[in-house]
């Protein structure tokens, strides 16, 4: 599975961004898909994940109420809608396949996309 993330950028605090991840390869809908993020000098941290049917979704406490993960199994894509962004959300965001909820363990990680939130 190869993962291509896009949608990062610079936004002011309180603004919104939508990250998208396109997956290529087989059996996309069998994977728990999700997002992690990392800032320099820190461990990668879990942000959100979604099971194949969008029912088993999980969010880090920092993302609850502000971020929404969704997936389209027909298009092999997973998205992360981020609202009410805060400066502390600034990080490189990575798409993952086979992500263990609430962990940084995944079978596949994509390349990152930078999100910068200015105060």
Can you characterise this structure?
The protein is mostly beta strands and 119 residues long. The chain is 0% helix and 52% strand. It is built from no helices and ten strands. The strands form two sheets. The chain has a six-stranded mixed beta sheet, with no helix packed on it. Strands 1-3-8-7 form a four-stranded antiparallel beta sheet, with no helix packed on it. A hairpin with a 6-residue loop joins strand 5 and strand 6 (57-59). The termini are far apart.
Task: Lay out the secondary structure.
Layout: E1 2-6, E2 9-12, E3 17-24, E4 33-38, E5 45-50, E6 57-59, E7 67-72, E8 77-82, E9 91-97, E10 108-118
Parallel strand pairs: 2-10
Antiparallel strand pairs: 1-3, 3-8, 4-5, 4-9, 5-6, 7-8, 9-10
Short synopsis of the structure:
Helices cover 0% and strands 52% of the residues.
Q: Which labels suit this protein?
A:
mainly beta, 119 residues, globular, six-stranded mixed β-sheet, single chain
DSSP summary: helix tally? 0
Structural class: mainly beta
- Total strands: the figure is 10
Uncertain ranges: none
Helix-strand pattern, N to C? Answer: EEEEEEEEEE
How far is the N terminus from the C terminus?
Answer: 37 Å
* 3D shape: globular
Beta-strand portion reads over 45%
- What Rg is obtained from the alpha carbons, in whole angstroms? 13 Å
Largest sheet: 6 strands, mixed
Please bin the fraction of helical residues. under 10%
């Amino acid at each position: 599975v190869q993962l291509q993330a896009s949608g990062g950028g610079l936004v002011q605090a309180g603004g919104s961004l939508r990250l998208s991840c396109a997956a290529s390869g087989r059996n996309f809908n069998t994977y728990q898909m999700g997002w992690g993020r990392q800032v320099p000098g820190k461990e990668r941290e879990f942000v959100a994940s979604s099971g194949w049917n969008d029912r088993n979704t999980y969010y880090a406490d920092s993302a609850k109420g502000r971020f929404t993960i969704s997936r389209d199994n027909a298009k092999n894509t997973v998205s992360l809608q981020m609202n009410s962004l805060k400066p502390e959300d600034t990080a490189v965001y990575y798409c993952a396949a086979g992500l263990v909820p609430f962990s940084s363990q995944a079978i596949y990680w994509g390349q990152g996309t930078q999100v910068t939130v200015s105060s």
